[in-house]
Automatic annotation (TrEMBL):
The chain crosses the membrane at residues 418-442. Pfam families: DUF247. The keyword Transmembrane helix applies. It comes from Escallonia herrerae. The lineage of its organism: Eukaryota, Viridiplantae, Streptophyta, Embryophyta, Tracheophyta. This is Uncharacterized protein. Keywords: Membrane, Transmembrane, Transmembrane helix. The keyword Membrane applies. PANTHER family: BNAC04G53230D PROTEIN, PTHR31170:SF21.
């Protein structure tokens, strides 16, 4: 018989309860209750329209979103490389004050006119504006008056001072055109309109509107006819970038509604469309380069000039549409359409030959890279874009078996003069052989 063994007592383990550091706890509670500083409370509202460009786009396109010579608005205010034009802003404000003395306007009148708009203006920025009331209003008045006076001087409503460096150095104007259309470099359009109406002299009552002045200012690069500009004399926008973008959106190029999906797909590049389905591209006249159609195997597109201005403008328009949930995505759609058409420099070369692209940007390969980068890392709903029908129609034509066979035949036998001559020689030889055979049989 075995002896009964007494079980050993289990060892006791002391459990130490971790105590939360009171200072850490208080710090966390403060962070929970603190309002965000980098993102304003209005960032998610439709009123918010001036954004910092997402870092993903900055990584692709570099400094295309940052001003090079002039700061407008709070995001780049005070940066050392922009100080030169900052001094000229005060000079322009001084000449404006002198010119409007006839209306008995003093500097305090300008500040008082903008003060009621302060809260509304702050809500336009996605980041918290770290200026107090006086600083913010001063900045809006200074920047707004400079822009308006610059428009008036360029259009010819107000004479330039003799030997003004801003007009004698032609490169400055080119940088103004680009810097005033950068997403991070904006003030609200309603601020510009308020200052424009305030400083409008009696002799200007029947003169051009703010919209007309702005369109003529940027027309040095866009080159639109006067009758097209006249259609937009009452146009407004959220800021200058949105204003110019809106002027290029034709009224009949609307985006489809949610229930009208046609399930389109992306299209192939120009080289494949031509070689595999015989689809060609043709340049047409239109008020805007956004007007694109597809008829009888031909993609019809207006001409567009790709240069330093247009590249910067398109990049900032796409960035704006990516950030603002309430605005249409016309420029993003156009950029995506170009990105589909262009894979290599050969595609650009063909579009240049067809007078659809005027290349003042660089080599064809550089344009191709720019277009491909323009469409990178962007959110795009092909079902709801204004070119949804064009995408659908091109794909249907491309997948039609008869079109593919005919295009293959043309590419094989008619792609070059020598292949055409060879095909004709073979056809003639075939005809002669048939005739000789018939002659032999009948003889």
């Amino acid at each position: 018989m075995g002896s009964n063994s007494t079980p050993e007592a289990a060892p006791h383990h002391a459990i130490k309860i971790w105590e939360v550091n009171e200072d850490r706890l208080a710090s966390m509670q403060r962070k929970i209750s603190d309002k965000p500083l980098l993102l304003s409370e209005s960032a998610g509202h439709s009123t918010c329209c001036i954004f910092r460009v997402p870092q993903s786009l900055v990584d692709i396109n570099g400094r295309c979103y940052q001003p090079h010579i002039i700061s407008i608005g709070p995001y780049h205010h005070g940066e050392p490389q922009l100080e030169m034009i900052e001094e000229h802003k005060w000079r322009f404000l001084g000449t404006l004050l002198s010119r409007t003395q006839g209306k008995e306007l003093a500097l305090e009148d300008y500040l008082q006119a903008i003060q009621p708009l302060e809260e509304k203006a702050r809500a336009c920025y996605s980041e918290t504006v770290r200026f107090n009331t006086e600083e913010f209003i001063e900045m809006l008045v200074l920047d707004g008056c400079f822009i308006i006076e610059l428009f008036r001087k360029i259009v010819g409503l107000v004479p330039w001072e003799e030997d003004d460096p801003l007009i004698s150095m032609s490169w400055v104007y080119a940088f103004f055109l680009r810097d005033l259309l950068r997403l991070e470099n904006q003030i609200p359009f309603f601020v510009l309109k308020c200052l424009f109406e305030l400083t409008r002299m009696p002799s200007e009552v029947d003169g051009p509107s703010l919209a007309t002045l702005a369109l003529h200012f940027f027309n040095n690069s866009l080159q639109r006819p006067d009758e097209v500009i006249a259609k937009h004399h009452n146009l407004e926008g959220r800021h200058l970038l949105d204003f110019l973008r809106s002027s290029l959106i034709p009224p009949d190029c609307k985006e489809p509604q949610l229930g009208c999906k046609s399930q389109p797909h992306f299209i192939e590049c120009v080289s494949k469309l031509r070689r595999r389905a015989g689809i060609e591209l043709s340049q047409v006249e239109a008020d805007s380069f956004l007007v694109i159609n597809f008829k009888r195997g031909v993609i019809q597109m207006p001409a567009v000039t790709i240069d330093d201005f247009m590249s910067s403008f398109l990049l900032n328009c796409v960035a704006y549409e990516q950030c603002h949930s309430s605005c249409s995505k016309h420029m993003t759609t156009y950029a995506t359409f170009l990105d589909c058409l262009i894979n290599t420099g050969r595609d650009v070369e063909y579009l240049c030959d067809r007078k659809i692209i005027e290349n003042y940007f660089g080599a064809d390969a550089e344009v191709a890279k720019f277009i491909n980068d323009l469409g990178k890392d962007v959110t795009f709903d092909i079902d709801l874009c204004y070119l949804a029908k064009v995408f659908t129609d091109v794909n249907q034509y491309y997948r039609n078996g008869w079109h593919v066979q005919w295009a293959s035949f043309r590419y094989t036998y008619f792609a070059t003069p020598w292949s055409f001559i060879s095909a004709m020689a073979a056809l003639i030889l075939l005809v002669l052989t048939v005739l000789q055979t018939l002659y032999t049989i009948l003889g």
